[in-house]
Amino acid sequence: AQGKQIGSSTSDVDEKIKVLDAYSSEKEAIEPLKNLRGKFDTDLSQGKVKDAIDDLDKLRQDTDKAFLAIMKPRAKENLEKAKSNVDMAEKQVFSIDTAIVKEDEELKKLNAEFHTTLAASKKKLEESMKDFSSDDFAKSIDNSTESNKLAEKAIESSQKLVLLTKKISEELARKRAEEEKKKRELEEKEKEQQKKVVEPEKEEPSYRYVWKKYRVKKNNTLWKIANKKEFFGKPKAWKQIYKANKKNIKDPDLIYPGQIITIPIKVKVPVKKSKCKCAPSCPCAPKNGDKVEEKKATEPEDANSKTNDEEGAIVPEDEDLEEVKEPEKTSEKKEEPVKDESLEKQPDDKLEIEESGNTGEDAEDSEEDE
Predict the structure, then answer these.
(1) How many CB atoms are located within 10 Å of the residue 283 CB?
(2) 181 and 239 both lie in a single domain
């Protein structure tokens, strides 16, 4: 009867040996316990009760030592690993763009899964810590192992969430940049249009020719007359004067004091201005195609009718000046003609109206006004 009672009291020892065998990788440390457990059974079966009791006491002591030496460090290591993974999973929350998650159903589902898994992992971790405090190392290891698996799953879900939200965020940023660019371009275009409305378009000035009458003075030549600032300001323009008076001047080298000649002067035509201060788009404003009102071109007046310089008929730019009638011959007494030696050096090329800047007057013009 005593032997049966002793045999039934080994349940606690057997459980610890079983746990050690399951969780410990140090099999050589467990083998002596198994051998001692076998000796206990042998002594008990042979009726050696006293030896069996000694075997059982030693077995309990050795099992407790082995359990603390093997299971406690293992449980502590597992617990620390679970804590680390749970902390890592919790930090992933701050990397998730919740604003983007709210706008996508798939991301919402993944985010909910992440938080559910993280909560379960934290719960298992708390249970593992309680088990460890009560020296239930086997259970602590089980709970910390489960907590660890859940934490790793939560981390995987969070990393997937971060990648997806980052991709969506970059796409949204690209679209916003394109919209901002289009908006700026539209604003610049509107500013340009407003600027065109405020600032009227500049119109290129048009030109016309007017007649100036000039009485030839002593020592005058076509070369000198053309060089005057009030006419052409360049001596080579004598050809234009000769062409305009070709019917009255037979030889460009010979002109007479007192002779009246007509000189075509190119002048700007003033742009027609509207009294309306509206923008160019206003119906009352002059259009680009509007023509400036001009007098009809007429023939120059009788050269002898007036001797003062004055404007005469308008001669269009493309009109041949040779067709303008020459002034009637003056009845004044002609003095000796003045031969323009400078003209002899000029080539007898085609006489056309030239356009260039003014030059200074000939030095001899000072003698004309004496």
Answers:
(1) 7
(2) no
147 and 210 part of one domain: no
Coil/strand/helix, residue 209:
strand
Domain that holds residue 236: 206-273+296-358
338-339 and 254-255: which strand pairing? antiparallel
Run of H or E residues at 114:
helix 105-133
- Give dist(CA 16, CA 154) in Å, integer: 34
Interacting residues of 140 by C-beta distance below 8 A, sequence separation 6+:
75, 78, 79, 128, 129, 131, 132
Judgement on whether residues 149 and 74 belong to the same structural domain of the protein: yes
Calpha distance 279→270 (Å, rounded): 20
42 vs 123: CA distance, rounded Å = 46
**Final residue of a structural domain among 201, 217, 249:** 201
Whose tokens are 């001899």? That residue is 364
CA distances from 185 to 176, 180, 188 (A): 14, 9, 5
Record the pTM: 0.42
Per the structure, the count of domains in the chain is 2
First and final CA of the chain: distance in angstroms? 169
Q: What counts of helices (H) and strands (E) characterise the chain?
A: 12, 4
CB 216 within 8 A of CB 259: yes
Tens-digit pLDDT profile for residues 22-76: 777 677 777 887 887 888 778 788 888 788 888 888 888 888 888 787 888 888 9
One domain, residues 217 and 197: no
